[in-house]
Write a structure and sequence with these properties.
Number of helices: 4
Order of helices and strands: EHEHHEHE
Distance between the termini: 23 Å
Strand content: 15-25%
Radius of gyration: 14 Å
Largest sheet: 4 strands, parallel
Helix content: 40-55%
Structural class: alpha/beta
Strand order of the largest sheet: 1-4-3-2
Shape: globular
Number of strands: 4
Length: 126
């Protein structure tokens, strides 16, 4: 499930703690640190503990986000905080946000097909 949210930091913390208590792997991506696509790949790669062979492109992102054999989890929670800031230094940030959403939906479809619960929150701060 992919959702746009506008949770406070306290609400996000509670959601993330509850997910972790249910053996979900929780990934927190700091959108304000993702001004460019390369910045996003660095942030998501650290948050999801991508292996060193991660190729820093969308195909490699798809490959890693649908593998995750290096993690132990019964479900996944991916939070991209400050989503409205992500890609803010790229020429057309909305195009890159749409591209990211497309690739996140690919991951959601994959994990749903494999009966692994997954939630992705695109948290927008005002």
């Amino acid at each position: 499930m992919l959702q746009e949210t506008s949770y406070t930091d306290d609400q996000l913390y509670t959601i993330m703690c509850l997910a972790s208590q249910h053996d979900a792997y929780v990934s927190f991506v700091r959108g304000k640190l993702c001004g460019t696509v390369d910045d996003f790949f660095k942030e998501i790669s650290a948050s999801m503990r991508f292996p060193s062979y991660f190729g820093w492109n969308w195909d490699a992102f798809d490959e890693c986000i649908t593998d995750l054999e290096w993690l132990k989890f019964s479900g996944l929670l991916i939070v991209i905080d400050d989503f409205n800031y992500i890609f803010h230094t790229e020429d057309c940030p909305s195009i890159y946000r749409a591209l990211l959403t497309k690739h996140l939906n690919i991951a959601i479809d994959f994990w749903n097909h494999n009966k692994t619960p997954i939630s992705v929150y695109l948290n927008i701060k005002h």
